[in-house]
Amino acid sequence: MSHGLVAENRRARFDYEIGDTLEAGIELTGTEVKSLRMGKAQIAESYASPEKGELWLINSHVQEYLQGNRFNHQEKRPRKLLVSKKQLARLDQEVARAGNTIVPLKLYFNDQGRAKLLIGIGKGKKNFDKRATSRDRDWNRDKARIMKEGGRG
């Protein structure tokens, strides 16, 4: 897997109402890149946090590279996200609002082979919103099945 999708946070759109999205670079060590190229990453329980004038990805899991030696990386270390100062100021302002958080959506390699993280500004959904999302998804699935069968219900 030299390019393409590495990890996706499928639960994010269910738990959060995603408003704005932004592509951010991610600062990695050599063994982390090799592990990502093998598709060994999880971002399901992670979040991004602006701290000390920088943006950090917290609680993401990149599995150790098996052929790595004593210079292997820590699996759950905070990783620096690369965004401009203007973007960081806007994200910091959005997080300062009540209920907003920065949620990672996808981790992938772009066309140049660089690791990128798609982040979104999310507002947490209430339980009734989650039920409505689930109901709509079920109805769309049933509707597609009915249309595929030719309306013979």
Automatic annotation (TrEMBL):
Named from the GO MF annotations, one term is: RNA binding
Write out the annotated subcellular location. Cytoplasm
Q: Which organism is it from?
A: Devosia riboflavina
Instruction: Please identify the protein, giving its name as recorded.
Output: SsrA-binding protein
One Gene Ontology term of the biological-process aspect is: trans-translation
One Pfam family matching this protein: SmpB
Q: What is the lineage of its organism?
A: Bacteria, Pseudomonadati, Pseudomonadota, Alphaproteobacteria, Hyphomicrobiales
Output the SUPFAM superfamilies linked to this UniProt entry. Small protein B (SmpB) (SSF74982)
Write out the entry's keywords from A to Z. Cytoplasm, RNA-binding
PANTHER family documented for this protein: SSRA-BINDING PROTEIN, TMRNA-BINDING COMPONENT OF TRANS-TRANSLATION TAGGING COMPLEX
The similarity annotation says: Belongs to the SmpB family.
Protein function: Required for rescue of stalled ribosomes mediated by trans-translation. Binds to transfer-messenger RNA (tmRNA), required for stable association of tmRNA with ribosomes. tmRNA and SmpB together mimic tRNA shape, replacing the anticodon stem-loop with SmpB. tmRNA is encoded by the ssrA gene; the 2 termini fold to resemble tRNA(Ala) and it encodes a 'tag peptide', a short internal open reading frame. During trans-translation Ala-aminoacylated tmRNA acts like a tRNA, entering the A-site of stalled ribosomes, displacing the stalled mRNA.
The main location is cytoplasm
**GO cellular component terms attached to this protein's record:** cytosol
- What InterPro entries is this protein classified in? SmpB, SsrA-bd_prot, SsrA-bd_prot_CS
Membrane among keywords: no
Where are the stretches annotated Disordered?
126-153
